[in-house]
Amino acid sequence: MSAAMDTESTYSGYSHYSGHSKKAHRQGRDRHKSPRSKDGSRSEKSVTIQTPPAEPLLGNDSSRAEEGQDDNWGETTTAITGTSEHSISQEDIARISKDLEDSVGLDCKRYLGLTVAAVLGLLVFLTPIAFILLPQILWRDDLEPCGTVCEGLFISVAFKLLILLIGTWALFFRQPKADLPRVFVFRALLLVLIFLFVFSYWLFYGVRILDSKDTNYQGIVQYAVSLVDALLFIHYLAIVLLELRQLQPMFTVKVVRSTDGESRYYSLGHLSIQRAALVVLENYYRDFTVYNPALLTASKSRAAKHMAGLKVYNVDGPGNNASGQSRAMIAAAARRRDSSHNELYYEEADHERRVRKRRARLVVAVEEAFTHIKRLQAEEQQKAPGEMMDPREAAQAIFPSMARALQKYLRTTRQQQYHSMESILQHLSFCITNNMTPKAFLERYLNPGPTLQYDRDRWFSKQWTLVSEEAVTSGLQDGIVFVLKCLDFSLVVNVKKTPFIKLSEEFIDPKSHKFVLRLQSETSV
């Protein structure tokens, strides 16, 4: 196997050398003429290191390598593959440090709230049962007999507690979707109300029943039934405050991503600022296209290229260096502003041309690969069941025929960091399993999808920070602006109240639509 690898590397090195011998000789001659351009000549043709399948399909330095690549870079570039167990970047280090700082406080707050709610819920469900059982345990011989009436009340209490248990499980015992910076005001108020309500019932029960050892057992059971009825009404109040109140749209929010200006509009009801931010983030992962920082490097590189071509000379001496240099650079940039739009136009036109060409190559390659799959399926129908190929093996068989075209297209559109080799193979096997067309397979790569379409490891937004001038527990109001920040960008949310619409009715008399058609008896000759 090692001998085969040496042969393959020798062959790739030979093809690399034979394809560029003349060009290397010319570059060596230019290097002797201008020794300062050594870095620029090296960046034109470089060795591409492909990461293992768990990593993205291409490297993240595609924007820099794209400038020096021609359309035939795949045939003249040596590829060296390797394996790595761990990889980490500066952004990962920043995220890990921030997560470690916030994880302790968030976990304590989450478990404290769950513990308080669980203890209070257990107290609520055990209180009516304790009200009924304590007289039977402490002074059973002194109780007045209660026959059929008490048995009916027992059945009523049992079914009401079952209904309350199911309703509480459906309303409160849900998997949390997010960790909010502040407590939910209405939920906290409901917990306080339930605690005060149960405490008052226990206080009255201890003073009027336990101390005096009341012998009217039917009244004690009815007292427990009244507690369960009140708890059912509190549960109905919780449904109104937590679920029904926010359903009616009252506000329209505009969400703008700070980096590329992509915006969406959403309708919200009566929510607090932190819960409105949660709704905005849920819609962001579904509606906004995935954030791609590589698309923003073109304008930055263009601006750096313009500023790099400027030379500033200090005439007034070293004292006025900073202010004079900045003024001179601003003036020179203003003078070159008239010619920059032509460069931008031709640059965008050339990029669109390359995208269309590589997209056409990719579409043709994928269609040919799927045609080959159909031909293989027709041949395998004639084979024995044990010799048939599964979708994973079929995907691995046809992937090399489209890998180069897909790689070039992802590099050109700067999407390589979102698609790993393993994810592409999984998507291809999924399309083969469900008998999908080539167009359905290419939809994920031709059009950037929402953030939820990609793996969590490819997301650039996991930890968010809510910035607001108002308290995050206060409700939405007209004109409020708050910002959701993450490590790479931010979402600016502007709240507008839905205008009051006044409709008026106008009555139309049905007789006004009637008309009379008069025909002349005389005709023209």
UniProtKB/TrEMBL annotation:
- Ranges for the region named Disordered are 1-86
Residue spans of biased composition, Basic residues class: 19-35
Q: What is the lineage of its organism?
A: Eukaryota, Metazoa, Chordata, Craniata, Vertebrata
Localization in the cell: Cell membrane
Q: What is this protein called?
A: VANG1 protein
Q: What species was this sequence derived from? A: Erpornis zantholeuca
Q: Where is the composition biased (Polar residues)?
A: 74-86
Family stated for the protein in its record: Belongs to the Vang family.
UniProt biased composition (Basic and acidic residues): 36-45
